[in-house]
Amino acid sequence: MAIDSPNLSQVLDDVASGVLQLPDFQREWKWDDQRIRELIATVTLDYPLGVVMTLETGGKSPFRAVPLVGSESAQGRSPDLLLLDGQQRLTSLFQALHSQEPVRTVDARKKNVKLWYYVDIAKAVGPSADRDEAIVSVPENKVLRSDFARNVLDLSTRDLECQAAYFPLRLVFDYAERSKWQQTFVRLEQANWDLWSQFEQSVLSKIQSFQIPMIRLAAATTKDAVCSVFERVNTGGVPLTVFELLTATYAGDLPYEREHDDYYRLPSVWRDIKKQLTTSYPVFGNPDAGVEDGFSSSDFLQAIALVLTWERKQEGGRTAVSCKRRDLLDLPLSDFERLAPKVADAFAWVGAFLERQCIVRSADLPYRTQLVPLAAVRAILGDRTEEIGYDDRISRWYWCGVLGEMYGGSTESRFPRDVEQLIGWAEGAGEVPDTVTEAAFLAERLDTLTTRNSAAYKGIYALLIKQGAVDWYYNEGPLTPGLLVQHQVDVRQIFPRNWFTRNRSGDARANSIVNKTPMSFRAGRSMSGSPAGYLKALAAESGIRPEWFDDVVATHLVDPIALHEGDFDTFYADRSKQLLGLVHAAMGKRTVFRDVSDR
Fold it and tell me: Taking the model in full, what pTM does it have?
């Protein structure tokens, strides 16, 4: 790392020539007019601007490089430096002081505008406290109207600029044009000689001698270090993601550019994958939402890293399966291109697997994170996951993770451990995965499962559907993934809220999953008052004989007699027992408690 302080003029020349460019992971320049004027005032006073940080390329940029806004003519030149911190400041100064085009920014109302920047000479040579007022922006046509157009400042020609004593800042470093402007200005009247001399000494000389403190990171700096440094120096913005860094890395992959005469567009590739998955399987999110809503690029990249590091370990090239940030940053483009289709297919299989578990909507998904190792296992094992022995073990692992709430904390170490252990166990050659042996579901947990914030809550909801629950209004047979959406099936209270208001006010069990079940919106409208009353109404609406309707009620693991009698305690005890049996079967545990002999 080196530190120096080049002159602002040199830095802006480097921007114009393309010597200094941005890595493609930098976000959009977005400073507004007021901030630009304040920045210029700071420079004219020679006040500290703050350090900028750059990365030396060593002649070969590790990322795709793009010119700063306003210097697009430098496109195609290989940069010597990449700007990591200082984009907003340097872009603003380049456009206002160096570019011969108006600055593309936004006004106080966030409206896009093109502005020129001037210095009011008379105000600028006054007290430094007035310097902010001396920096003026005018529209692209250089005519500024104020006070409902009663006041007009016309700067559309050099003569008019000189008459108003407004110096155009775009000429600060254009010595030939600045000299012409000076000559026109001082010829207007004798007093302008002294005014110009003061202006040159107190404003122009400070801009021309202004220095930019610059930290230069060596070209050998690792991508992981670049990412860390960028996040530290951009604490006021949105953290840099691995996906953004890989986007710039892949776009700058020179062998790819030479072969394809283009650059690799990772965002487009990811957008297509995400669109296909969400269209086919809504559990991954809304296809019309943002590409990072729900199932994310990070999930996808982690699955690829798990597969790649597993392959390398099998080849003896490394000792650990991993998907940490450094593994993602070290993911070569060739391996990404090779594995991305396989992993995308694996996630599609995961979507179908979740449908078989009756989890079809993103809001009903217990853990998004658990899908990452599951997809990696599918990508590695391929079609073998569909064989009976494999499918049974994978399903048991999945439900232990959900009902044991094993993916609620840090997953960095659990991901690789589950991948290796699940593959060995599925193939019958390894021990039972830790996620299975460590999972425990205590009977008392049913009382505290009250909202969708819990994975186990969502899991029991799905298991009720999977085991054959029939809707109490439509009676079209067991609920299916299609019917869940068609009939707006959601969690409904069996003993309704108004029943508790009248009979058991304050009973915390009212909101327990034990007192809830998947039911259509239409059935839910009838579920009010006493259960005995609404059951008669639902039976009549369905046209089913009451004794047969009780069989439909029982498909929800509910004792219909307790409902008819309004006996909440009996209902709750019986259903708790049945739900525990459902959990028992899904987890494959001999008890609902932690059982070390299951190892």
Answer: 0.72
